[in-house]
Design a protein that fits this description.
The complex is a heterodimer. Chain A is α+β, with helices and mostly antiparallel strands. The longest helix of chain A is centred in the last third of the chain and has 31 residues, at about 280-310. Helices cover about 45% and strands about 15% of the residues of chain A. Chain A is globular. Chain B is α+β, with helices and mostly antiparallel strands. The chains are: A alpha+beta, B alpha+beta. Chains A and B meet through helix 10, helix 11 and helix 13 of A and helix 7, strand 10, helix 8, helix 9 and helix 11 of B. Chain A: It comes from Spongiibacter thalassae. Chain A: Keywords: FAD, Flavoprotein, Oxidoreductase.
């Protein structure tokens, strides 16, 4: 245990910041700051710029075209990117598909898919949940039946984020119904343009379109679409969650939200004094700041333990679940506080750039754009990735065992 | 930054934990809490186990570890609900005296490391009533001011006090007041948890000049830092208490049966337990963070510790309350230990600024 502030990262942070200030197009940054959902064209253009710099796969090992950065460095990079308003990179390809392929996939899969993901040339969607298999994911019923050299996929998947952009899908499906669900599920890479796939958009409450459902009817998956071994899909999916657990608090996002909150708090809205001069808001902001500081330390602790443990459990806290609960609640809280600061301006509907390009905006401060949409959208944070109720179950089970 | 304990740190933590669980059972604790007398076994072991000098450099007879290690010991004191405050008797004087160049200050610190004396600080309240020292003869000072709060006063042989010299607020002196000369000035009061806090009020107390142990130019800054270190140690102590509450509550949920099943099978109780664990780890994280600022500027350190005290306090009141709640009526009794943790955590929350006080001052650090 040694708590010396790591100043070696300061130089790296400055380097990233300088790169962003010159490389990130201003209009893209402005869209990013307003927190509307990313445009595919923005994301792809940004990936191209990052790729040229060698930073597009910031979380991958060098041998697969990544940066080889440790977790703390990646965190600095993400913080700076979000603070600058950069679009979020395609997360399913970079954080889920990539690591699963280079950890469990074949040499051919590595060769075929990784460069395309790194270069931003393929967009991946995740097809895990089903209408009747959400928190209870193991109860999924989609099946992939072996037929000769290939599999025949049938089923109905839902909540695929940015599925409308997807070129490829990662799909969990049952390959063996005779064993425990956790042993009978396999992990597939599926071409999203295969015959038999139908996609339907789901609009969420901010009226944005990020979510989708996928119907698979006799979709043929060639044998090389199977990742690793048949029946191991559940453990691969668990590996992904483990791998990502230190990131569950979404520190970069929360920091960017807090900055935005401070910016709004310093505005004069409708001639009223800035919220920051009112003790009630100062105290709320101070409270969130303290908790964000704690959450950042918890994240660094989880990363430190994850990197030192090599797969072993070193401590008795469920870091992923705890970080998820705190980070998701904080995003909602900051959003709610921004809404409070905006008052009746927060009740206005601001169309996003992509929904109604060129349309006139309602009156009120420009900083209000996107706040309500983001506030509405972020009700998802306490549900996605396992609802916070499930996370509390996990934490309690770790303490109580099977009572 | 490294969050994992190395072998030496594990050994320090384990030896304190082992000693307390073997030699300081709940009934002993309760007995000394009632009597107000210091527990001889604890006082002895503070020195024999080299605990008191854990953060004092080895040239002065200490262990030469740091405040991280001291916080580990403080946490174990919290877990064991030790009446004597480690943070006040070890961490506070170490932070104040380390680095002072005067031989008198160094020998005071050495005396602490070697167990010849126990020193406690006089903490100023807010707003700060200062102490003034006046030279009244070539041999004597006269000290007036207070009241100051003295934690660890039942063990201390000396109280360390900072005073403005000869009505010159820019020049300060550090005095080591022998407790034996403070029979009228230092009054002990019992707190809710059985610990004692001393109130020191000086009205022209005459002291020999060798009680002045330092006139370093940065004494005010040092004193502020020492108060922050002490408070950080108190936060670590509260973490240990919360650990104990969580552990006892977890056990209780496993063994207490109602409606034919262990009550830990009820999801509402499971989720409450999870929230207690979350609060505890959040409190630990913000305490860790304050440790990062020990060697930063005193101002930054002070804010980091204020954040820690705020968040540990907020977590502590939640964890303590839920610990009682999940125990049901047995949690209300004086006989069962959970109520003692509740009281000790309440004392923590009330001391050095409540959550509201701290939130207000933290709010004032945000720039317009």
């Amino acid at each position: 245990m040694d708590f010396v502030l790591d100043q070696s990262l300061d130089a790296f942070r400055a380097e990233v910041r300088e790169f962003l200030s010159s490389a990130l197009p201003k209009d893209m940054a402005e869209r990013g700051h307003r927190c509307y959902h990313e445009d595919k064209s923005d994301v792809l253009a940004w990936m191209k710029i990052l790729c040229k710099k060698g930073w597009s796969a910031s979380n991958w090992p060098v041998e697969f075209g990544g940066t080889g950065w440790g977790a703390a460095k990646q965190l600095v990079f993400e913080e700076e990117c979000l603070a600058a308003g950069a679009p979020q990179r395609p997360v399913v390809g970079l954080s889920l598909t990539g690591p699963v392929i280079y950890t469990f996939g074949s040499a051919e899969q590595i060769q075929r898919h990784l460069p395309l993901i790194k270069n931003g040339e393929t967009w991946w969607g995740q097809c895990f949940s089903e209408p009747n298999a959400g928190s209870d994911l193991a109860s999924m019923t989609s099946t992939a039946t072996k037929e000769g050299d290939s599999y025949r996929l049938n089923g109905h998947k839902i909540w695929t984020t940015f599925g409308q952009y997807a070129d490829w899908l990662i799909v969990l499906a049952v390959t063996d119904k005779t064993v425990k669900p956790q042993r009978g599920i396999s992990f597939f890479l599926v071409d999203a343009h295969s015959p038999g796939i139908t996609m339907k958009p789901i609009y969420s409450m901010e009226r944005g379109h990020t979510l989708n459902e996928f119907y698979f009817e006799d979709v043929v998956i060639p044998a090389d679409g199977l990742v690793g071994e048949e029946g191991k899909g559940w453990s691969y999916a668990k590996f992904l969650l483990e791998n990502e657990r230190s990131w569950s608090a979404e520190i970069p996002r929360n920091k960017a939200l807090l900055q935005r909150l401070l910016q709004i708090a310093r505005l004069q809205i409708d001639g009223a004094e800035p919220a920051i001069s009112r003790p009630v808001f100062r105290e709320k902001i101070a409270d969130i700041t303290a908790r964000l500081h704690a959450l950042e330390m918890l994240t660094l602790r989880a990363m430190n333990e994850h990197e030192s443990c090599k797969g072993e459990r070193l401590s008795n806290w469920e870091s992923g679940s705890m970080l998820h609960i705190k980070g998701s609640e904080m995003q909602q809280e900051i959003g709610a506080l921004m809404m409070e600061l905006l008052g009746s301006s927060g009740a206005l509907y601001y169309p996003s750039y992509t929904q109604r390009p060129g349309e006139e905006y309602p009156p009120g401060p420009a900083e209000a754009h996107g706040v309500a949409a983001d506030f509405l959208y972020r009700r998802a944070t306490t549900i996605y990735g396992g609802s916070n109720e499930i996370q509390r179950n996990i934490i309690a089970r770790a303490l109580l065992g099977n009572v | 930054m490294n969050f994992l304990l190395d072998d030496e740190q594990k050994q320090i933590r384990d030896s304190v934990r082992r000693f307390l669980s073997g030699n300081y059972p709940f009934d002993v604790r309760t007995e000394y809490g009632r009597s107000g007398e210091p527990c001889p076994a604890i006082v002895e072991q503070l020195v024999a186990g080299s605990w008191i000098g854990v953060a004092i450099c080895d040239e002065l007879g200490g262990v030469g570890a740091g405040f991280s290690e001291a916080c580990l010991i403080a946490e174990e004191f919290g877990r064991g609900l030790v009446v004597e405050p480690f943070w006040a008797l070890s961490m506070a004087p170490t932070a104040l005296l380390e680095g002072l160049s005067e031989p008198s200050a160094q020998s005071t610190l050495q005396g602490i490391a070697e167990g010849r004396s126990f020193a406690a600080l006089g903490f100023k309240g807010e707003p700060q009533p200062g102490v003034r020292a006046e030279s009244i003869s070539p041999e004597l000072f006269s000290l007036s001011g207070g009241p100051l709060r003295v934690y660890g006063s039942s063990v201390a042989s000396h109280v360390l006090v900072i005073a403005a010299m000869d009505n010159n607020s820019a020049r300060c002196g550090l005095f080591s007041l022998p407790v034996e000369q403070l029979s009228n000035e230092l009054k002990q009061w019992e707190q809710l948890d059985g610990s004692r806090v001393g109130f020191l009020e000086l009205n022209g107390l005459q002291l020999a000049k060798d009680c002045l142990i330092s006139e370093s130019a940065d004494l005010v800054e040092r004193y502020g830092r020492a108060e922050s270190v002490a408070l950080m140690g108190y936060c670590a102590t509260a973490l240990g208490m919360m650990e104990a509450v969580l552990s006892h509550t977890t056990d209780y949920l496993q063994v207490r049966t109602q409606f034919g099943v262990p009550i830990g099978r009820f999801q509402s109780l499971q989720h409450r337990l999870a929230d207690m664990k979350n609060a505890l780890e959040e409190a630990r994280a913000i305490t860790h963070r304050s440790l990062c600022f020990v060697d930063q500027s005193p101002e930054k350190f002070k804010v980091a510790v204020a954040e820690a005290k705020y968040l540990v306090g907020k977590s502590a009141s939640f964890v303590a309350a839920q610990g009682v709640q999940l125990h049901g009526a047995i949690g209300l009794t004086d006989e069962f230990l959970i109520s003692h943790y509740f009281r000790a955590l309440t004392v923590f929350c009330q001391s050095f600024g409540t959550c509201s006080d701290l939130l207000q001052s933290l709010g004032n650090t945000i720039s317009d």
